[in-house]
Design brief:
145 residues, alpha+beta, six-stranded mixed β-sheet, 6 strands
């Protein structure tokens, strides 16, 4: 399967994820020992066992959601490795909230060719999508370096 087909599948899979179903996303990740995930709710995870658990926990936080838009910032592709920087715009009920809320994520996804298809080998998503003061971006308290 070529890269564009996998990227299109990813967008459909993230729609299932934000509705609470991690299965389609998990199928698109590499199941290797070097796969990694850094999501907004915890430390980075490495290895399929940890990444799989983190995806399950992440999907459990969402209901009634959709990946509404993906704004591509940059793309770098070689014959065996691809890296995308995107802003993803989502709508969902988060952590049992009564309301569907919009949120945006800054996302870096790295794909690697494995056998005859591409797999996600790394994904980093966080909520920083606008300029931040250095103390906020670094988690510093005013007056404390």
């Amino acid at each position: 399967m070529d890269l564009e087909e996998v990227v299109a599948q990813c967008r459909h899979a993230w729609n299932a994820f934000v509705a609470g179903d991690p299965g389609p996303v998990k199928a698109l990740f590499s199941h290797s020992d070097d796969v990694s995930l850094a999501n907004p709710w915890g430390p980075p995870w490495r290895g399929w066992a940890q990444v799989s658990q983190a995806l399950d926990a992440g999907a459990a936080r969402f209901r009634d959601g959709e990946l509404a838009a993906v704004d591509e910032v940059a793309r770098y592709v070689t014959p065996d490795l691809a890296c995308f920087l995107d802003t993803e715009r989502w709508l969902a009920r988060v952590d049992g909230s009564a309301d569907v809320v919009p949120f945006a994520l800054r996302v870096t996804s790295v794909y690697r060719r494995e056998d005859s298809t591409w797999k996600i080998v790394h994904r980093h998503a966080d909520a920083i999508t606008t300029p931040q003061p250095s103390d906020a971006a670094l988690g510093l308290t005013p007056g404390h370096p």
